[in-house]
Amino acid sequence: MRKYDELLVSLRRVIRAIDLYSKKLNKESGLTSPQLIVMQEIANNEDVMVKDIATHINLSSATVTSILDRLEARGYVVRERTQVDKRKVAVRLTESGTNAFKNAPTLLQEHFINRFEALDEWEQTQLVSTMQRIAKMMDAEALDAAPLLQVGQIHPQSTVIDNSK
Questions:
Q1: Mean pLDDT of all residues in 58-63
Q2: Which of 104, 95, 90 is closest to 37 using CA atoms?
Q3: Tens of pLDDT along 115-133?
Q4: 101: part of which helix (H) or strand (E)?
Q5: Which CATH number fits the domain that encloses residue 98?
Q6: Mean of the pLDDT values across residues 148-153?
């Protein structure tokens, strides 16, 4: 097998592992990884603003808003205008949202992070550099992505990669 084939097989295995865990997570909790990440950010930051959530988890405000719409429809979050500045909207978990978040299984990235942090510093740096180079080789540097392990579309609009550059 050629080296690039071996690399592509490994990438497919990673994608498949993420997909399988995401399906398990959704089946057990009814929530997606992006929803749990947003809920985690809200739980850790009382009355947080959408823009701040988006910044902390490296997603666009539009993507976070879409996720919040689904969570709000399920009664897991509420958005309220702040008393200080009526233009700003704060987000908080409802009691139902807090319970759903606390009862959800751990995210796959927690398992990954524990193993990653057990590596030597040089190995961590090497892995980060290699994955950044792979993302660049796939023209994926500008894609909307959070530091969470999730596959599938999490943004309401599809993203097209322009390989003509």
A1: 88
A2: 104
A3: 999 999 999 999 999 989 9
A4: helix 95-103
A5: 1.10.10.10
A6: 46
